[in-house]
Design goal:
Elements: E1 2-4, H1 12-25, H2 39-42, E2 46-48, H3 50-66, E3 75-79, E4 86-89, E5 92-96, H4 97-102, H5 106-121, H6 124-155, H7 159-201, H8 207-223, H9 237-249, H10 260-276, H11 280-286, H12 294-307, H13 310-323, H14 328-340, H15 344-357, H16 363-375, H17 379-395, H18 400-413, H19 416-429, H20 433-444, H21 452-462
Parallel strand pairs: 3-5
Antiparallel strand pairs: 1-2, 2-3, 4-5
GO molecular function: metallopeptidase activity
Keywords: Hydrolase, Metal-binding, Metalloprotease, Protease, Signal, TPR repeat, Zinc
Cofactor: Zn(2+)
Length: 468
């Protein structure tokens, strides 16, 4: 599981609006937040994990099809955050790892995805941007009127008029914010109803959505927080339950449960997230009724890998593999343990097995296999390593880590031009444009003008930072 993050700097008005939205987000399934187009490399801490990505893809596929989004290239991205939240941007649905960890059933996360699909299918982002422009205009005009009134009052010596000018400016910002939040609450309610339709269309229950809202309502009640319903971006949880419960219970699928196989995959993902988050309390709490079950032992094995020794972790993964020999992700984790044990040849075999067992042939696993081959340091393995790394990059070209491994492989072969170009790509997709240009310029000097690699280097040299 790998994480990458860089901060962004929103405008002052944006910060005011987002801070209000952020408060509401803790009380709701999803905040439809407008974020930069380059989200993966500029503001969102993205988590990459083949196992969890495959699970979420299986959750998403039927919902996206029902929403008419399956042909639009919508992608679901995992965000490294402990809070229960999700949001959309462009053609992407972002889901916090905390949401997966807290959701007790697959159906709860499927409900979240259905809600976000409702936002995408309804074009809510585009309309929200228009509302933001309108709200910004209202606030600016109000501020100008307030300044004008204040100046006029000061010029005439009328202190009350000067104070009134400040009141006009503050009042206009408040009105703009309330108008925007009212619009958002309407869109959230619409997305909830659309989610019910998608769940019905795919023969799935909406009970998970209600369970989620009930959890939020209980948490809000226990906190004793007093919420001004006009200053939040989502309807209150109790209100959402009231709006949806009758509709949800009318569905013939309301009592349908997730399959045991899907539930097990969900629990394995939850255990993995808890282990990587070093949240032992959550891990123990999740599986207190089955402390010797597969998910609990999986989480424990990962903790041993991360915080113990390979010698302690390896037998635990071997036992898991004996129980589920065709689980590619157990073999993948075994490969990670062997890398930590300084056995790259053994790791390469484990990653190769994982890749052979996974019908998706995920890019991350191909990169892991190539990385292990490269780390053997054997010249005869370098071409195979480069082949696997390039295949992984071709399937997932915006993942910077793969380019870093590729640069190391080319470096071991003495091909410094391609090593520099791969390093340039790694920096480019990490959002480090200046560093990318430096390595691209260095690579280009060693390449034949007009060749594909030379042209790629030129593209990086000519690249400009995206406008904020």
């Amino acid at each position: 599981m790998m994480i990458a993050a860089l901060p962004s700097r929103p405008s002052l008005f944006g910060r005011v609006i987002r801070s209000t939205i952020a408060v509401a987000s803790a009380l709701a399934v999803a905040a439809t937040t407008v974020i930069p187009a380059q989200a993966q490399t500029s503001s969102v801490p993205v988590v990459r994990d083949a196992e969890i990505e495959a699970l979420i893809a299986d959750y998403s596929a039927p919902i996206l099809k029902a929403a008419g989004l399956n042909s639009r290239g919508v992608k679901v991205i995992l965000v490294n955050s402990p809070s229960f939240n999700a949001f959309v941007d462009g053609r992407r649905i972002f889901i916090n790892t905390g949401a997966i960890m807290q959701a007790e059933t697959p159906n709860e996360i499927i409900g979240v995805i259905a809600h976000e699909a409702g936002h995408l299918a309804g074009g809510h982002q585009d309309r929200l941007r228009e509302q933001l422009k309108s709200a910004r205009t209202m606030a600016v005009i109000g501020a100008l009127l307030g300044v004008g009134a204040g100046v006029a009052g000061a010029a005439t010596g009328n202190g009350e008029a000067a104070k009134a000018g400040g009141g006009i400016a503050m009042g206009s910002a408040e009105a703009a914010m309330r108008t925007l939040l009212s619009y958002q609450r309407t869109e959230e309610a619409t997305a909830d109803r659309m989610a019910i339709n998608y769940l019905n269309a795919t023969g799935q229950s909406a009970k998970g959505m209600l369970d989620t809202f009930q959890r939020f309502a209980s948490a809000l009640s226990l906190s004793g927080t007093q919420v001004d319903q006009y200053r939040i971006s989502h309807p209150l949880p109790r209100e959402r339950i009231a709006n949806l419960e009758e509709l949800a219970r009318k569905s013939p699928y309301f009592d349908r449960k997730d399959s045991p196989v899907l539930q097990l995959r969900h629990d394995l993902a939850r255990a993995k997230i808890a282990a990587y988050s070093n949240n032992m309390r959550a891990l123990n709490s999740m599986f207190r009724k089955e402390p010797t079950g597969l998910p609990a032992r999986y989480g424990n094995a990962i903790v041993s890998y991360l915080h113990g020794s390979p010698k302690a972790a390896l037998p635990k993964f071997d036992a898991l593999i004996k129980e589920q020999p065709k689980n590619p992700y157990f073999h993948e984790m075994r490969g990670e343990v062997l890398l930590k044990a300084n056995d790259p040849a053994g790791a390469a075999k484990a990653f190769q097995t994982a890749l052979s067992l996974d019908p998706r042939k995920p890019a991350i696993q191909r990169m892991n296999y190539g990385r292990a081959l490269m780390l053997t340091g054997k010249k005869e393995n370098m071409q195979a390593a480069i082949k696997e790394l390039k295949a992984g990059i071709a399937a997932d070209p915006e993942y910077p880590v793969g380019y870093g491994f590729l640069a190391q492989a080319y470096g071991q072969l003495g091909d410094m031009a391609r090593a520099d170009l791969a390093t340039a790509d790694m920096n480019y997709y990490s959002g480090k444009l200046q560093q990318a240009k430096i390595f691209a310029t260095r690579a280009q000097k060693q390449m034949k003008p007009g060749s594909p690699d030379w042209l790629r280097a030129q593209d990086i040299i000519n690249a400009r930072k995206p406008k904020k």
